Structures are given as structure tokens and as C-alpha cells.
């Protein structure tokens, strides 16, 4: 794994961290190719029920019925024993769609963060750990909110806390599944801005969003699913600006503004 002499970047290596080739999930997603890793941004769009969440769940090891290939840093996971999937927990974090269930409602934000670190095999944050303070700053949440349960936060704060929980695992890749859909538009945009800030670091992003206007400036490429099948993919401006399929055109026409 070496830095590219031409570009001076880790682009090639980074994009190869998680590689799917012809990835199939039961009968719900079929034949998906993608490359994800630090510094890579991919949007996944499609109608309701097109398989976006199923794909996201498959990429964090929550879907048992896999076929095709899914490699983590060159190691095949499809058909591998469960132990082989353990490395995913520290590297890939999924933030769920529903802000009410993204975090355990009974746990304080501090406890949720501790739990995420433990599951990822990271060391514990001490009570006044500067890394904990830095994490809260990174998601623009006041440190006092650490002691609250999710129900005592606003919807936007809850999604920030869910992102903080995911980042606590120090992942190389964040997968966010419709995390703005329960928020009103101004608040949703603040979350999109946060994702954009995270992208300037080394974190890779796979963003599932039914609102296509959030994608340009946040991710570079987009994959369109239709009934579980990939129907179009490429640079986000090209795919959304000149849709090649009726599915993509329909999604673009339904977008609030692009
Ligand atoms: N656990 C499951 N077992 C069987 N079928 C499922 C399961 N979860 C979802 N499905 C079905 O798989 C298909 C894909 O669902 P999925 O939730 O991945 O789509 P989606 O694109 O994320 O939709 P949405 O935008 O509504 O969240 C749908 O037909 C759905 O009804």
C-alpha cells in the first residue's frame, strides 16, 4: 500500500478498502459493484423498496444471505466464518434511518459512545478524555449533552449524537441511511454540512438519500438502484444532470432542487 507518485494521494488504496463485485443479497439486491474507503464518497439512490437499506445492512454484516464478492482490505467475506467479519465493526459504521432508534433510548449519549468503542475494540474514553470533547466538538454538540438520553435531545441533536457514536469507533467508512429524512429542511442541511466537513478528513461516506439535492458537494459518485438492480452509476453531476434511465429521471424530477 503506497502513495501514488502521480497524484500524491492514497486514492487508489483508500477506494479498495471495501470492494463489492456482483454482490447479491437474497433476492432483494442483485449484482452490485462498488468500491469504498477513506476519502471516497458514494451516494445511493432509488425508489422506496429498491434495496438501498438492504445494501447498507449487507455492507456492515447484517444480512446473512450474500452471494458474489465482498472484500475487506483484500479479504473475501462472502462465505467466510463470522470471525472474518469482526474487522468490519471497527472500520465501517452504519447510522440508521430512524433517529429514535439510531441510539439506545435508555442509554445516555456518553454510554452509547462507550458501547460503540467497546464493540469496535477501542480503548475506553476516560471521563474527561480530551478525545471525547474533540468528538463532541466535531459533531457540534455541547459536552453537557453527553449525560442526556436521546429522548431529551432535538431530532437534529439526536442525529449528531448518532454520528458521534459512529465516529467513536474511529471508522474509515461511514454509511448513513436516510439520516435527514425525519428532520425539517434547514436542520437536515446542517447535518449534510456536518457530513461534508467529515468528508474533508479521511472518513469515507456512503450516503443513502431520497433527497438528491443533498448529494452534489457531499459525494462524488452515485449509484442508482431499481428493484434491487444497479441501473446507473457515475459522477454525481453527470448522472443527475444527464440521467440515462427513466428511473434516474424520475428521481431527479422528484428532487426539491438541484
Ligand atoms: N428483512 C427483510 N426480509 C425480507 N424482505 C425484506 C426485508 N427487509 C426489506 N425487505 C424487502 O426488500 C426490499 C428492499 O427493501 P429496502 O428497505 O432495502 O429498500 P429501500 O430502498 O431502503 O427502501 P426505503 O427507501 O423505503 O427505505 C423491499 O421490497 C422490502 O419490502
Automatic annotation (TrEMBL):
Keywords: ATP-binding, Nucleotide-binding, Transport
Gene Ontology molecular function: ATP binding
Pfam families per the UniProt record, alphabetical: ABC_tran (PF00005)
Domain ABC transporter: 13-252
The organism's place on the tree of life at top rank: Bacteria
Membership in a protein family: Belongs to the ABC transporter superfamily.
Record-given protein name: ATP-binding cassette domain-containing protein
Amino acid at each position: 500500500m503506497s502513495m501514488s507518485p502521480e497524484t500524491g494521494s492514497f486514492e487508489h488504496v483508500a477506494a479498495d478498502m471495501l470492494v463489492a463485485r456482483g454482490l447479491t443479497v437474497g433476492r432483494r439486491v442483485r449484482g452490485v459493484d462498488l468500491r469504498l474507503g477513506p476519502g471516497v464518497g458514494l451516494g445511493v439512490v432509488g425508489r422506496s423498496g429498491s434495496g438501498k437499506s438492504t445494501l447498507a445492512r449487507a455492507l456492515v454484516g447484517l444480512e446473512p444471505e450474500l452471494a458474489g464478492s465482498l472484500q475487506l482490505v483484500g479479504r473475501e467475506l462472502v462465505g467466510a466464518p463470522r470471525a472474518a467479519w469482526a474487522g468490519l465493526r471497527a472500520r465501517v459504521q452504519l447510522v440508521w434511518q430512524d433517529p429514535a432508534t439510531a441510539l439506545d433510548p435508555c442509554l445516555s449519549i456518553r454510554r452509547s459512545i462507550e458501547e460503540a468503542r467497546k464493540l469496535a475494540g477501542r480503548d475506553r474514553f476516560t471521563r474527561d478524555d480530551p478525545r471525547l470533547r474533540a468528538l463532541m466538538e466535531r459533531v457540534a454538540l455541547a459536552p453537557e449533552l453527553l449525560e442526556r438520553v436521546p429522548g431529551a435531545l432535538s431530532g437534529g441533536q439526536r442525529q449528531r449524537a448518532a454520528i458521534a457514536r459512529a465516529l467513536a469507533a474511529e471508522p474509515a467508512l461511514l454509511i448513513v441511511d436516510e439520516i435527514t429524512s425525519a428532520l425539517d429542511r434547514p436542520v437536515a442541511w446542517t447535518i449534510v454540512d456536518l457530513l461534508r466537513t467529515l468528508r474533508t478528513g479521511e472518513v469515507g461516506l456512503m450516503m443513502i438519500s431520497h433527497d438528491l439535492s443533498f448529494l452534489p458537494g457531499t459525494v462524488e459518485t452515485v449509484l442508482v438502484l431499481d428493484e434491487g438492480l444497479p441501473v446507473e452509476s457515475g459522477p454525481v453531476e453527470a448522472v443527475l444532470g444527464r440521467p440515462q434511465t427513466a428511473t434516474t429521471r424520475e428521481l431527479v424530477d422528484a428532487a426539491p432542487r438541484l
